[in-house]
Amino acid sequence: MKISILGKTLIIAFTLLANTMFLFSQELLFQNAGISNEGKCPRLAVNPLNQNVTSSSGTTSFSVTSNIAWTSSSDQVWCIVTPSGTDNGTITATYQSNPGAGSRIATITVSGSGVSDQVVTVTQVGTAPSLIVTPLNQIVTPSAGTTGFAVASNVPWTASCNQTWCTVTPSGTGIGTIIATYQANTGAGSRIVTITVSGSGVSDQVVTVTQLGATPSLLVTPVNQNVKSSSGTTSFAVVSNIDWTSACDQAWCIVTPSGTGIGTIIATYQENTEVNTRTATINVKGPGVSNQVVTVTQSGTAPSLIVTPLNQNVTSSSGTASFTVTTNVTWTSSSDQAWCTVTPSGTGNGTITATYQENTGANSRIATITINAAGGSSQVVTLTQDELITIAYSGSPWCQSGVVQNVSLSGPSGGKYSVQPEGLIIDPATGAITPGASVAGSYTVKYTFEKAGGTRVLEATTGVAIYLNVTPHIVIKWADVLICSNVENLFVGYQWFKGTTLISGANDQYYVTSKIPGVYTVEATDKNGCRTMSNEISIAAAKSPSVYPNPATSSFRIGISDIPVGKVLIRIINSTGREVMTLNTEKSDFEFSREIPVSDLDKGFYIVQVTINEIYLYIVKIMVIK
């Protein structure tokens, strides 16, 4: 804090933060105590406290209010000030240009006798950040060495390169030099390293070092590699300073396709199954050099003959089977059976195709095939053909009402029967089919027989079918006429029964019972010839229902006293035979009673039929009057 007096004013200056000064002034009232208005008290004030200036060089000024001699000084060489003065005056601050990107401050201190120092500042803004690296490229020789790039900047910077064979000065501040140290280039081609220089607030600068290549050369050793007949790898050494490629003229030998400079060519070779030696030629090429030719010489293998499998099992049907021949010599083959012919000859690896005729016999049979190879070796294989096996059923398709159907088997017994899809009832041991318990549909029956030792499984299949039976349904009309429904014309024949007794001559779709009590059914024959028994209708005339009142005007009550219980159907039929009313209800006890309205019926006679569970029939007449 600094205190000074200017006239009648007390000036207090104090610094709260760096480069920030606050002033406080208050007019003083001097007492008549021997002090005049001007007084002899020294004073010193400098304004303003700070001057902001541009980055360019120039001058700025501060006003000095004082009644004493004073001096001033700057703490920065880039800013010089008026060195001294007396009483009121001006301090001129002369500043240089600011090449840096950041602002800078010069502190000016003004001093006088008997007063506190006055401190003011000049704040100069920075120049825009800049970074320039030259030249853009340096071309150097193949030998190891160094080269340099000039950096002109006003910010800190860093440098890096993208190749391990070249290192650079990692960083610097402002103006400087980047030294690039590079290794010797042993390759024939030139190479380039990219150097990236970065700084805050500026774009990256990219320069390069281009290093020339050496004289191209290429040498591959040894000239030949001798290898065994088995598969494996061998190698050739490459001494070079260029990019090179290699290729082999044999499919059984593949090589490293390319490389750069010193390296190795790996030759991977397959097994030589032939008896003769073979050679693969490897050609190595590179730009600016002569081709290098080396070879892999592989010895041959001993003569061999393998035929697999030793036996082929085939079915009784005609067809072909094959045997694989693995050999490195020529060969011939022959069969000892006329029903089996084979591929007569071949060279090296191949296939023997055995063509066989159908076996219609009850026993299996074997053909022996002999293969002879050059050099004296031979091998024998066989083809075993199964005996013929068949299954059959007679009369299929069958009705669901039909009898059990037995299978006819040609071949060895003791196998198992199965069926697809599910729904057909078959005995797995005997093959017997029960149509009555089966679901209608088409099925495939398969017989499976496992030969001794489980070496072969013989199979035979056949198809069967079950007709879908439609159950006929009979109803009663006009109190004594039974009718078999045949809406879709499924049925072509009828036979009526009373109880279990066949009614002679009752072969129509209709049957008149003449109200003779009993339980009636019909056996209907459909278009497939399947016969199915219908539901039962019971004529129970011995127990007629009671009706009262009779005649009736608005309604009557019908009652039945009988054992049957269940669903009740009440039908009212007029004198012309037309049904005029139908009611459905339930009978749950011995006694049954139901009131029936007739106010909507015309006067006249009507027949009332009551059927319980579609079996028991009760009939009564009623008269309606108005």
Write up this protein.
This protein folds into seven domains: 2-124, Immunoglobulins (Immunoglobulin-like, Sandwich); 131-211, Immunoglobulins (Immunoglobulin-like), CATH 2.60.40.10; 218-298, Immunoglobulins (Immunoglobulin-like); 305-385, Sandwich (Immunoglobulin-like), CATH 2.60.40; 390-466, Immunoglobulin-like (Sandwich), CATH 2.60.40; 474-539, Immunoglobulin-like; 546-624, Immunoglobulin-like. It has no helices and 59 strands. With 626 residues, it is mainly beta.
Brief description of this entry?
This protein has no helices and 59 strands. With 626 residues, the chain is an all-beta fold.
How would the blueprint of this fold be written?
Layout: E1 2-6, E2 9-17, E3 20-27, E4 44-47, E5 50-53, E6 58-66, E7 69-74, E8 79-81, E9 84-86, E10 89-95, E11 104-112, E12 118-124, E13 131-134, E14 137-140, E15 145-153, E16 156-161, E17 166-168, E18 171-173, E19 176-182, E20 191-199, E21 205-211, E22 218-221, E23 224-227, E24 232-240, E25 243-248, E26 253-255, E27 258-260, E28 263-269, E29 278-285, E30 292-298, E31 305-308, E32 311-314, E33 319-327, E34 330-335, E35 340-342, E36 345-347, E37 350-356, E38 365-373, E39 378-385, E40 390-392, E41 408-410, E42 416-420, E43 441-450, E44 457-466, E45 474-477, E46 481-484, E47 491-498, E48 501-502, E49 510-512, E50 518-526, E51 531-533, E52 537-539, E53 546-548, E54 555-561, E55 566-574, E56 579-587, E57 591-597, E58 604-612, E59 616-624
Parallel strand pairs: 5-12, 14-21, 23-30, 32-39, 52-59
Antiparallel strand pairs: 1-2, 2-3, 4-6, 6-10, 7-9, 7-11, 8-10, 11-12, 13-15, 15-19, 16-18, 16-20, 17-19, 20-21, 22-24, 24-28, 25-27, 25-29, 26-28, 29-30, 31-33, 33-37, 34-36, 34-38, 35-37, 38-39, 40-41, 42-43, 43-44, 45-46, 46-49, 47-48, 47-50, 50-51, 50-52, 53-54, 54-57, 55-56, 55-58, 58-59
